[in-house]
Amino acid sequence: MSGQSIGVASPVVAPRKAKAASGRLADTYLPRVITGVVILLAWEFIVRAFAPAYVAKPSTIVLAIPRVIVDPAFLKATGATLLAVAEGLGVTLVFGTVIGVVMGRSLSFDRAIRHYINGFNAIPMIIVLPLFSLWFGYSANTRIATIIFAAIFAIIMNVADGARTVPREYLEVARSFRATRLSTLFGLVLPASMPYLLAGIRLAAGRALIGAVVAEFFLSIGGVGYYILLNSRTYHHNEAFVGVLLLAGFGVGFELLVNWCTRYFMPWYRRGQS
Amino acid sequence: MLNTTLRRHAPFWLSLIAGIALWEIAGRSTSAAFMVPFSATLVKLWQLIQTREFLNQLLDSAILFSTGFVLALAVGMPVGMLLARVRVLRVGTEPYIMVLYATPMVALIPFILSIMGFGFVPKVLVVFLFAVFPVLYNTVEGARSIKPELIEVAKSYRSSEWALWREVMLPYTLPYAMTGVRQAIGRALVGMIAAEFFLSSTGLGQLIMTASQNFDTGGVYASILLIGLIGVALMRLGLKIEQHFARWRQ
């Protein structure tokens, strides 16, 4: 068997034994719940004992949640940030995939722009904010630009990796059946680089969120980041922290969504962990 | 021979020259408030490097970065291995680490600012928070993939817990941890600039902020170019470290 497919190196994991539901309950959920309770209690008591009254603690955050989630200002901020992230990610996805595929399939194009992509990827994305605000003004356009800049290189690099590692045998089969370039692209290269694209999206979504929040801090334009900034400046830490919980929710939600997509749409693709 | 070398390196140099030319032309044909030509940026950068203030700012940033980064390593790696070794702890903390890993840490900066103020410590905390979770996460992933046989063999030779850590866990985990270290370098750099932007303005962040507030577009380009080069150099270093340790993986 010489045909070895190229995959992502994955750590060897001992197979998990199937456990009875009760064993799993005691084994997994009990430590988790206990840890959670310990963290919350420690947080509560440390803040109560040492910190000034305005500092957020679990009990007051919980009380703030119902108030904040019906607050029109908060809803508007959430909508603005989410929309900007979605818009930015959409643009990123289209252009990132196109550039990535071309990079992966054309060696000379790859050699020509690889150092630009690597270079931009290594730049801490927030330093472009002063420049972007100069170009696009103190407006929502700058936020979108920041989101795109923050996210696109992760997509390009991942898609390029994916398109490059399409197994040679598949390409040979496609060629011997006289597949056109276009059908090779859509029937083979794109599906084969899907797992990489999804990994890229996961990275990109996290960065897009950071980009949006940082842009809102910097530009003082409406959104969750600005909501957090404004409320924490006026010592409404509990309200502000609900914003952080929302952002954490986005982050985790996206992570779970991508994991689920990988499992559901690409059951053939396994990454080390179950 | 010459032909293949040429074919390999020509695209790189051609595109580099094309990029610089494009920058130069765009800079010359638009308003100086938006875009500064490459040549003028280089001149500006040269002037900048020679000032005494720049040296202090570079030093400030370097101290901030390394303090936060070293703290992140000192906490992330041992805690990661401990979590991998003690199953209950790992299972218990796993979801919380995942959540913190996925949370944009920048969102915590306003809290840190209003609770801890403008000093050095809150800035180090920001860098630490940015950098620690990639290290922790990857160390746990690496350490939990240790084959149980290795630990069993060590145990059956009555190796002490300390020897087990030193001889089995550490060498096995390091390559994985280094992936986290590479990610952490990038994140710590972002954290450093974020701290310098949004907490007290010092270091390289101050450099670019001052330039932008004075509408000194040339200064903005020069500092972005500089920080970009530093970023690339650090990433290269991280990649080299990761590749060095990757040889240990079997």
Indicate the CATH class of the largest domain in chain A.
Mainly Alpha
Strand content of chain A: under 5%
Give the second-level CATH assignment, the architecture of chain B. Orthogonal Bundle
Number of strands of chain B: 0
- Distinct helical segment count of chain B: 10
Unreliable spans of chain A: 1-15
CATH domain topology of chain B? MetI-like fold
The topology string of helices and strands of chain B comes to HHHHHHHHHH
String of helices and strands of chain A? HHHHHHHHHH
**Helix content, binned percent of chain A:** over 70%
CATH homologous superfamily title of the largest domain in chain A: MetI-like
**Biggest pleated sheet of chain A:** none
* Shape type of chain A: globular
How many E strands of chain A? 0
Q: Determine the CATH topology of the largest domain in chain A.
A: MetI-like fold
Give the overall form of chain B.
globular
What is the CATH superfamily classification of chain B? Answer: MetI-like
Percent range of helical residues of chain B: over 70%
* CA(first)-CA(last) distance of chain B: 35 Å
Using a beta-carbon cutoff below 8 angstroms, give the protein chain pair with the largest interface and the number of residues from each chain.
A-B, 69 and 65 residues
